[in-house]
Amino acid sequence: TRHGYEDVFLANFASMTPENEMKMEALQPRRGEFDFKTADAMVAWAVANGKQVHGHTLVFKSQNPGWLTEATGLDKVTGKGAPYDRDELLAIMRDHVTRVMQHFAGSVRRWDVVNEALRPDGSYMPSVWHDTIGPEYVVEAYRAARAAVPDATLCYNEIGAEVPGPLADATYELVAKLKAEGLIDCVGFQMHVNGATPPARDAVQENLERFAGLGVELHVSEMDVDVSALDPAARFDGQARIFGEVAAACHAVAACTRFTTWGVTDAATWLGPDAQPLPFDASLAPKPAWAAIQRGLSL
Question: Which residues contact 265 (CB under 8 A, 6 or more apart)?
Answer without folding.
Answer: 5, 8, 278, 280, 281, 282, 284
